[in-house]
C-alpha cells in the first residue's frame, strides 16, 4: 500500500486528462525538462496545456506569439486553431501581427485608442485605409479570402 496522503493520490481520470492535454499540445516530451530550460515556443505550449486543463468555455490569450520565431508562431497558432475546431473552444486573442490575425482568426476587432475601429471578417476589416488610419503606416493588401499585409512605409507614430 502507498504511504502517500489521500490528497496526493492521482486519480486515473486526472492522469488520463493530463496525458491527453500533454499529447494535444505536443508537450509530453517536455515533462523531464526544467521550465527555465524551455525555449519560448516550448514554454508557450506548456502554458497552453495549463490553460486548457480543465477545458474552459473560453480561452483568453494575450499575445500568445510574442517574442517567438516564425516557426513557433505558426506552431502555436496551429495548435490554438486545432483546439478551436476539435474541442469547439471559443478563443479570444490579442494579436499585434495582422498577418497572423488574418490567417488564423475568423473575426477581427481592431481597436484605435481603446475604441472599436472595425469589426468583422479579416477580408472586410483589413483595408489599407484602416491600417493607415489606425497604425499610421502605408500598407499594401494582397489577397481576398486571407489578406496579406505588406507595410511600405511608416507615416509617423
Description of the structure:
It is a single chain. With 157 residues, the protein is of the alpha+beta class. It folds into two domains: 1-94, 3-Layer(aba) Sandwich (Rossmann fold), CATH 3.40.50; 96-157, no CATH class. The chain is 39% helix and 22% strand. It has a two-stranded parallel ribbon with strand order 1-2. α2 packs parallel to α3. The radius of gyration is 20 Å and the shape is elongated.
The overall strand count is: 6
Query: What's the helix count?
Result: 6
First-to-last CA distance: 67 Å
Largest sheet: 2 strands, parallel
Low-confidence stretches at least 5 residues in length (pLDDT < 50)? none
Strand order of the largest sheet: 1-2
Return the average pLDDT rounded to an integer: 87
Strand/helix succession: HHEHEHEEHHEE
Shape: elongated
Radius of gyration: 20 Å
What is the helix fraction of residues, given as a range? 25-40%
How large is the share of residues in beta strands? 15-25%
At CATH level 3, the topology of the largest domain is: Rossmann fold
Multimerization status: single chain
What is the secondary structure topology, with strand pairs?
Elements: H1 12-24, H2 40-51, E1 58-62, H3 70-86, E2 90-94, H4 98-104, E3 108-112, E4 115-120, H5 122-125, H6 128-135, E5 137-142, E6 148-154
Parallel strand pairs: 1-2
Antiparallel strand pairs: 3-4, 5-6
Helix pairs in contact: 2-3
